[in-house]
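notes to self, project folder thing:

trying the whole complex as one job this time. last attempt i did each chain seperately and stitching them together was a nightmare. two parts in total, labels are on each line so i dont mix them up again. if this works i'll redo the older ones the same way
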Amino acid sequence: MVKTVTRIPVANYSKLQAQTGYSIKIDQTEIALFKVTSGEVFALENRSPHPKGGVLSEGLVSGKYVYCPVYDWKISLENGMVQAPDEGQVQTFTVEKEGDIIFLII
Amino acid sequence: MKKLVMIGNGMAGVRTIEEILKLAPEQFEITIFGQEPYPNYNRIKLSNILQGDTNFEEIIINPLDWYKENNIQLFSGEAVVNIDVEAKRVMSSKGREVEYDELIIATGSNSFILPIPGADKMGVTGFRDIHDCEVMIKDAKNYKKVVVIGGGLLGLEAARGLLNLGMKVDVVHLMPHLMERQLDPIASSMLKAELEAQGMNFLMEKETAEILGNERVTGLRFKDGSEIEADMVVMAVGIKANTEVAKNSTIDVNRGIVVNDYMETSVPHVYAVGECAEHRGTVYGLVAPLYEQGKVLANRICGLSAEAYGGSITGTQLKVAGVDLYSAGEITDDDQTKSIMIYNDFEGIYKRVLTKNNVIVGIVLYGDTTDSTRLFRMLTKKEDISGVSIFHTNTNDAAADDIAEMPNDELICGCNGVTKGAIVEAIKTQGLTTLDQVSHCTNAGRSCGRCKPMVSSILAHTLGDQFDAAAAQKTSICGCTTISREELVEEIKTKGLSSVKEVMNVLEWNNEEGCTKCRPAINYYLGMVHMDEYKDDRDSRLVNEKMHANIQKDGTYSVVPRMYGGVTTAADLKKIAEVAEKYNVPLVKLTGGQRIGLFGVKKEDLPSMWEDLDMPSGYAYGKTLRTVKTCVGAQFCRYGTQDSMALGIELEKKFERLDTPHKVKMGVSACPRNCSEAGIKDIGFVGIDGGWEIYVAGNGGVDLRPGDLLCTVKTEEEVMEMTGAYLQYYRETANYLERTSKWVERMGLDHVREVLADEETRKALNERMDKTLNRYIEPWNEAIKKEDIQDKYYTKQTIKVGE
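result (full assembly):
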């Protein structure tokens, strides 16, 4: 089986602010890009695994977690895991930084 | 604009700049020179870096973005070498010349490097900044044997860190006792025994004469002729005010740069603050007094009348290598002092209180610092201690009395920072019945366990006395901390905390960047305390308030423009209709608050929609005044006795945008038929012949509750005055997210009435309210005008692959 990997430039690192989420739509997939205080950048599917859904990009960022803005679920930016007592996982994407450009691997 | 230059980029100096920005944001063009190539970081945490508990990014207080946002020109890695006080100009190590109108010297201090032969060899370092830490961490990989010169706090912290890095550590100390400035001989010998058990070796009463070696250090020779091997030396004998640059000009320098009570040096327009300043003969090294100085200086520079700085009395709470220590006041005996001591070598506890003429003058606590708050209070208030039991024994009778008298902020568990209040609160709100449960919920007693008897007594006391109303009010803010709302507000006031980050940092949040419960709450309390000078932390608000629109379950937003008193015009209705068509708004609906909501708007459309509407935000999303619902009233209605629309509009215009603990709704009816349903509003006004009835604490939501009559007044002026005072009292005393209905039930209606009955109190409340109202600007208009806000909050980038 052939799997196609696409590397897409999505942002300038220097323009991203810490503790902030950004929404990026690539074709039909909406992605939430987060820069955290330590300077790391993470990318997740911009959709909470809560049964009623909701976006993540506008949630409050604390350390390497985002709180879903609609139902307040706490979600790890590193692996997309929903923290107890809630359950679930969000799809994460690999982020690469080259110079000032942030690339997503889709 | 006046030019303000600061030499130094450390904690005290930058804190002063923050104070100045709060007082006079547009008054100065600010330039900062910093010798270190970094933004301002928390120097207190250097030992944590050395010990491997944290990294550099996490201890930055003001990131580079902060300098940019506040238009501060930062020259880092660049020291100022000369001040020309005549020409009012500074010159940097890179030859840069900058003129000033006002100059702050905040150069801090340097490690005191002993002036002995060999002190310049490779492998000899101080312990003062990031660079020193990096050198030590790097050297620890290649070298094994380190000598730390200095057995004070700094030296022992360095030694503990170096042990963690796997080195063999010898500590050399000139004096016969460790930390002799904070500890008496007994406490310091206990500390020495503990540290020896952890692996340190001590060489006491040794004066270093020479550092041996060729290029790199190989050992030390002492004055008595003995020698010791070392391939690394850390000098931690103390710090020395960095006064170099002042000395080179004509500014008076003693041990530090001499300042008066307004932090002014001997030269006009030149000030000094922080560890480089000497005030009334004292050079301070702890952060709390330095922050006090910063506040005084900021007021002075901004030309505001300020209280003079009168010096600080401080107690020092320390944790050295896992041991709790506390020290305050005079700790050396003379023939007038009488001591009270507890010495428990078995459990590693030692407490000593020094008294003179029936008052406490000094405190030394080792191993258990739970008495520190209470004793320090007695020291500063000079309480007469005759007949008072200084140390509490844990026999049950005495303990029960103690607990009743013990204030809520008294620390019970020193290891985990758990107060009596936190324990009582946990017991009450969570219905705890066993010691284990309390430990689990509060962390009290989970580390060393010494406080367990006390926790046990509190449990017994709390369960036996259900009428302890004061304690029952206490609720810890969230899982990130154990402190209560009251404690937080008190800390913000006394420590002068000014940002959400600083609160979480200084008050040691166990979750460094907080959570969705505490961040918005802290932001609210800061704004409540600091009134017009607080810069709102937008990213600590939850989505709706951050975006100034209500998020819907599909990620779209709703837009609800202000419609004062529910009164609109044909022109506004046309605009709303046009916008709804232009942006294909899926739903247009009349809301419950007498206005029009546009639902299903994409976030990237929000700013342009607001621009087209050209109406203020209705704040349909905020913890703030939502709407003032009105009936038609005397202008048209045959029953109306008062002009309800006019009063409603006036109320809404005055209090719109105000941050409140929870949402606030109002209603104004012109007669007791009450068509605006004012009886179930947070504040409701009902017109009667010759006046208004004011109802409070009504709620039409989850907890349906009719309002209570607060009072009856005659004129609209009285309505405004009473409403302002009531709202402000709610703002100052309610817990964040506590609706007025719950708040009134907790406080008691009679109590609220009593407070508001006093004219002076009402006046003061209204003054604070008016000051607060000054700070608000219309958020939609701001978003339209500011590109950075649009970029950060309202952009959705769309990428099509292959294009």
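what i see at first glance: The first strand of chain A starts at residue 7 and ends at 12.
need to look closer tmrw
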